Amino acid sequence: MPKQKVLVTGAGGFIGSFLCKRLSESGYDIKALVLPGEKIKHLEDMGVKIHTGDLTKPDSIKGIADDVDIVYHLAGRVTDWGPRREFYATIFDATKNLLDESAGKVSRFVYASSFCACGMGRHFKGMKEEDPVYKTGTPYGDAKLDAEGIVRVYNKEKDLAFTIVRPSNVIGPGSVWVRDVIERFRESSVPLIDHGRYSASLIYVDNLVDGLLLAGTKDRAKNNLYFFRDDWNVTWNRYLTDLGRIVGKRPSPSIPFKLAWIAGSISEKLYAPFHARPMATRHTVGMMGRDLDVDNTKAKKELGWKTRISYEEAMKTIEAWIRDELLNKSR
């Protein structure tokens, strides 16, 4: 039986690298879309075929989905700040361009969205996939929601089978929720919001990759949407304390959610003309100051997904990576 052929966008990024490794170990024939100048040696070492291109430039991805069975679309602007147009170019426009290339060719288009698409600034606890979602003005979440919409349009108009995945906060070696937090601890401080009492709503990257593989291969996942969140009882207070301990720091005093949200909104406007990272953003405040424990029952029942790696195991791996990549190499 011939190998299934898979295209992974964002293959040089955090989640993409882990997904390519698992696909390679599972015997898939992998094509990776990477941006010009991205580091690709680790992908080449896996035997991955490299296509260099930019999803915002349609001519650079012509024919990329030819002879491909499954597309895993992970690429997009992953940060909490920046001009709205940049989020829409790299998330919405990029997705549409890839859909144009994929329609009529692939058997499944797996779109990695985010639970941020549900509307930041409110509690998600207990939210199910069919519950109402809406835009709240945070560009990352809004762009993700609109990209989900265009995926559904291509399903209806072009008969392109899809699966939409909404992960929670993804952690692991190289995650923004690890690298950026450690850098912030080392440079200044990391405050708690509302005393860090809410769930951090985490998912370890290997557990997410389990879900992505199921999303791309299970018949039940066709034309469906799934939340993926680990069954860990871990608050922001605990997670930030555990990370801070590695560099000898503790989270700084708590800020009330409403005050932090307003500060984020003001900071975004003040820093925007200078194209600089704001001191705070509504995106980060919404992530750390609300309970985002979406209901993951559907993925468990329909796909057989589960939390395979525990929080304790995950943090051991993360600590080893921090010490090796961020601490030892900076000395």
Secondary-structure map:
Blueprint lengths: L4 E5 L4 H12 L3 E6 L6 H5 L3 E4 L17 E4 L10 H19 L5 E5 L26 H20 L3 E6 L1 E3 L4 H12 L3 E3 L8 E3 H13 L6 E5 L7 H11 L5 E4 L1 H15 L10 H7 L8 H7 L7 H17 L4
Parallel strand pairs: 1-2, 1-4, 2-3, 4-5, 5-6, 6-10, 7-9, 8-11
Helix pairs in contact: 1-6, 3-4, 8-9
Question: Your description of this structure?
Answer:
With 331 residues, the chain is an alpha/beta fold. The chain has a domain at 5-171 and 201-230 and 293-306: 3-Layer(aba) Sandwich (Rossmann fold). Helix content is 42%, strand content 15%. It is built from 11 helices and 11 strands. The chain has helices at residues 14-25, 41-45, 84-102, 139-158, 176-187, 205-217, 236-246, 257-271, 282-288, 297-303, 311-327, and strands spanning 5-9, 29-34, 49-52, 70-73, 108-112, 162-167, 169-171, 191-193, 202-204, 224-228, 252-255. Strands 3-2-1-4-5-6-10 form a 7-stranded parallel sheet, with helices on both faces. It has a two-stranded parallel sheet with strand order 7-9. Helix 1 crosses helix 6. The longest helix is centred in the middle third of the chain and has 20 residues, at 139-158. It is globular, with a radius of gyration of 19 Å.
